[in-house]
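Fold this sequence, please.
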Amino acid sequence: MEKLIITAALTGAEVTKSDNPALPVTPEEIAISAIECWEAGASIVHLHARDVDGSPTQDADLYNKAIKLIRKECDLIIQVSTGGAVGMTAQERVAPVALKPDMATLTTGSVNFGDAVFLNSWSDIELFAGEMKYYGVKPEIEVFEMGMVSTALRLAKNGLLEPPLHFDFVMGVPGAIAGTPRNLMNLVDSLPPGSTWTVAGIGQAELSLGVMAILLGGNVRVGFEDNIYYCRGVLAQSNAQLVKRMADFSRELGREITNPTEARSILRI
């Protein structure tokens, strides 16, 4: 079994400092949190940016500032979000891809997201995939529902994605696929041969699905974007605390952790 790749999703678009005061918001805070996660065992950092008032933004300058601060200190794989926040235009969302990060997320369908709709039309999906291909950015296919795997295969058939594909199963968002072991097994079974995958369990699903992914040979995403608690009713002290717990679990189960160089080799970046 290959070593485990841990992704740290530091900030997201919905969580605020009132939810967890340790949430990193400024480029400087995001960079510090990323470096702490690297030291704890993460190989990939998944980035969202925030404005000075804490609201989500896809401002490429803010992304670039955080990326430069991270790259100055470590060799983490940089993955930017093209999800942004619900309601943003496709042009806003895709802007950070032009910075040529190592990776970017590519959501291959629309989905209910709590009380809102995370809209991804076919033309928007083609735009995102085309920009990633143009700039040489590795897509991480974000899957919130089973049908999104089929859409990714359609993109590959049309030449917009190049195998082997890498998927991230985001499970437990209200309105999307539930974070259950049965659903994870169905998603894994739906992938084409040679694919790699990560699971991002939302809330209480983070720990159980993460451990399951370790045992199945998949990879794990943790962090405040998905879960702000260490255990029931106890806020996590940092993103790095969540990374370290998953790294410790993996080692206890006999599976070592990648460094960024090894993760690049596995993902063919």
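The chain has a mean pLDDT of 96. The domain at 6-267 is CATH 3.20.20.70 (TIM Barrel).
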